[in-house]
Design a protein that fits this description.
Blueprint (H helix, E strand, L loop, with lengths): L9 H9 L16 H20 L6 H13 L10 H6 L16 H27 L12 E5 L13 E10 L4 E4 L10 E3 L3 E3 L11
Antiparallel strand pairs: 1-2, 1-5, 2-3, 3-4
Length: 210
């Protein structure tokens, strides 16, 4: 999840604990670390925007959003070959006339879900192989001293520092995510993506990082 203050509230965390829901934070300023969710958000945002701008009579965007989500759930996914609604509920939402539809039972549904998973993993492996061809990330270790990119380039003021630090890497969560002690109270919000880290080389001059 994104690291908004509300998500860090004790009340929200207690609710998740009660419902046995695991809360996993994404790295700061790195939406691509939760790419599947962000891609869906982008698709829905574009549809909502088009719908709002094409209608003469203004309606609440929440109503339009609900319609867009419902339509999205009834559209066949190019990777899985099935609609989200069918995979979740077993509901056939295809446009094929009822008399031509093949009746499916529970076993068919479970088999289709397994097929959808297989196709998804195959697509993921293919995309990963394409991305990894030119990917040469710096590998950090616990104890390394690093600087951190200061916020999003689009939101950063002209005279603000380009990077902050130096800080020490506390934990390596994965090859891409690192936990760094930045002095903030909440350590849940101290996860950073490798693309936001700059290794400290020797005694860097103060002006070099500004």
């Amino acid at each position: 999840m994104d690291q908004y203050p509300g998500i860090n509230s004790r009340e929200f965390k207690d609710y998740l604990k009660k419902e046995k829901v695991q809360l996993i934070f994404t790295a700061i300023n790195a939406p691509f670390s939760n790419g599947l969710n962000e891609r869906l958000n982008q698709t829905l945002t574009n549809r909502i925007r088009c719908k709002i701008n094409e209608e003469e009579k203004k309606r609440a965007w929440t109503s339009i959003a609900r319609e867009c989500v419902n339509k999205y759930n009834k559209l066949e996914h190019t990777v899985t070959g099935f609609t989200p609604e069918y995979l979740l509920y077993g509901t056939d939402t295809s446009n094929i006339p009822e008399e031509l539809k093949r009746k499916k039972n529970g076993e068919d549904w479970m088999r289709d879900k397994e097929l959808a998973l297989e196709r998804t993993l195959r697509s993921h492996r293919y995309n990963k192989s394409i991305y990894d061809r030119n990917r040469r990330p710096h590998e950090f270790n616990v104890g390394d001293i690093v600087f951190i990119e200061n916020g999003n380039k689009l939101n950063r003021k002209k005279l603000e520092e380009l990077r902050i630090g130096p800080f020490t890497i506390e934990e390596k969560i994965s090859n891409s995510i690192y936990k760094i002690k930045t002095g903030k109270r909440n350590q849940d919000t101290s996860l950073f993506h490798v693309t936001k880290l700059i290794p400290m080389v020797g005694n860097e001059d103060e002006d070099e990082r500004r």
